[in-house]
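Researcher: I'm preparing a figure for a lab meeting and need a structural model of a single chain. I don't have an experimental structure, so a prediction will have to do for now. The sequence is pasted below. Please return the structure as tokens so I can convert it later.
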Amino acid sequence: MTILVAEIGWNFLGNLKLAKNMILSAKKGGADVVKFQIWDPKFLKKGAWDKDGRRKIYKKAFLNKEKYLILKKFSKKNNIRCFASAFNLEGAKLLKRVGDTWIKIPSHEAYNNDLIKYAIKNFSKIIISAGCLKKNEFLKLIRLIKSKKIYLKKVTLLHCVSSYPLKAADCNFEKFYFIKKNLGKVGYSGHLQGIHDSVYALNNGAEIIEKHFTTNNNLPGRDNKFALTKNELIELKNYITLKKKFRINKGLGLQKCEIDIFRNYRGRWSKNIIN
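Model: Understood. Here is the structure written out token by token.
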């Protein structure tokens, strides 16, 4: 079963009414799960975000425990799972306190062994994006996941390239194949605009597809610009459904849907020599 994750992240910009609308839209679009991001601006180091205004946006979009619980309750009421990314141990501990059993570790923290081991110990499903890693860090992460059966069971590693938006020539699906070969399973977190990268990932065995999601590409913030909207999500979900149907095994012989043609059309222009 493929899991389709609508990454709302901080696209709601701190507006809980907008966040709820995004949850409903993702549900209508066919998402199995919605995901937010848990971080606290007080832990944010100084950087470029202090010069371009992003720190103010981060503060505005800050999702504290109380707000996250409101969105979890709303999601549950509307029959869609809600979980979140944790960017540090404090965030992971908050998610544990509110009773989450799933956790996402973003690419920016995929090198953080303490966070990963805490997640494995305290959550039943751990999803890790493998973007923004040096080669030695990526291989170290693969070895860590392979080191114990419980790690392999709980963790799904998503191929990801941390570029926003991503160009097709930079998708680097060779890394996707490497993950699948070494771990026996793989997912995909895509930042290409549209659904084509996700369709390719699905055709090559992705068990989880994660795409950024919004209700309006004109909303402020970088991620809103390339995120999927409901109609694109519907198209992706429809493909997932069709893909399941394509793989239904009907055997090697005549199918029921062929009987009319078999009876009335075979041999119309030639002698039927096969009994």
